Amino acid sequence: MSEIPFLLIILDGLGDHSYTELKDRTPLEAANQKNISKIKSLGAQGLMDPIAPGVPPSSDTAHLQILGYDLTTEYFGRGPIEAIGEGIELEEGEIAFRADFGTAKVEDNKAIVVDRRAGRIPTEETRQLVELLNKEARFIDGYEFKVVGLTEHRAAVIVRGEDLSYEVTDNDPHNVNVPVLECQVREEAKEKEKAKRLAELMNKWTIKTMKILEEAKLNEIRKKEGKLPANVVLFRGAGIMKKLPTFYEKHGLKAAGIAGGALYKGVAKAVGMALIEVQGANGMPDTNIKGKFDAAKKALSSYDFVFLHLKATDYYSHKGDPIGKSEFISKFDSNLSILEELFKDIAIMVTGDHTTPCDRGLHSGEPVPVLVSAPSIRRDGTKIFSEREASVGSLGRIKGSDVMKIVLDMVERTVEFGTRPSPRLITYMPLELKPLRIS
Length: 439
Ligand code: ZN
Ligand code: ZN
Known about the structure:
By secondary structure, this protein is an alpha/beta fold. A hairpin with a 2-residue loop joins β3 (95-107) and β4. The radius of gyration is 23 Å and the shape is globular. It is built from 15 helices and 14 strands.
């Protein structure tokens, strides 16, 4: 086991632009950095392109890339990751989508999206509709459809059956005043026939469920009360449940994950990390941030690698609120004091999974600042942790796929390139060495 435990802190969507309301500073630059600066004094900073320069990552792809997974061969879609993060058990080979109950009106033989959240329908009402769909639209052409209600308008759709490929498009147009889309085969699909089968099934299912929802008693009541009916299920992020090599198998580090948002819990589970549940951790600004830091501190005594995720930075970015984002980073900084006594003995990385500039309200392809510290590491002379200072920091400009190599080096677990202590080509000292038997 590694002598130096590693703490990876991801502030979702951390990177940003500067704003006049923050006196021409970024939210990170304007935040309190009392404890961040203590980490800063023990290490260095730089910029990271999570996937590649100019490519805005989704959170799940950025996380998998940073954790050392190959997105071209090991990414199986967002739907199953979010579903397992919500605690839904998926069997290998099952197809899953993330879905939202929305409102649409029929015009000209098309369903025009009016609201993508059905007026933020409450959880209990979504559950009633889910039950209805699971009864009346459970099977189409022998394939089984299972809807699982999550919080408010959110849900997951699971499809079971033979010979399906997840390589299909969303029916969710990701906007309002545009039509619900036909689910189609992706142009680059490897299994076109199987994908065509799923696309056809999804289209039949969408039409069938729209009819059932339109006639649902609950929606009649909602309309009478002047509320938006939840009359369409908008799905996206098709994926197939696949077993990935575990984080431990890949990097030789025993890992634990701490997160509030389902997607991030799902990422931790998908790579076989131990998931540490913290009461009140919800991926929102009012998350139990102290509880998460307490849990991280404890986990650092029994795991080699602890992944701590905070979502609210990205939440404020999407809302276009740089002041809120900056205040949340200050709150993060003050909670870092919980770990202060460990700063000198552990290796730390603080970064984001992508840049989400508040003025765009969307993920951008700009790099994110990365701060690192470790007991034995080159230190740089940069002052505060920031997008601007990071551009002159000694870590330079790295890629998401470099992170785990840097991690293993920071915890002093690497072997020199070209040496082969194990049959498997790995970059770290193998955990089990095979001794030569003398007699
Ligand atoms: Zn993210
Ligand atoms: Zn985001």
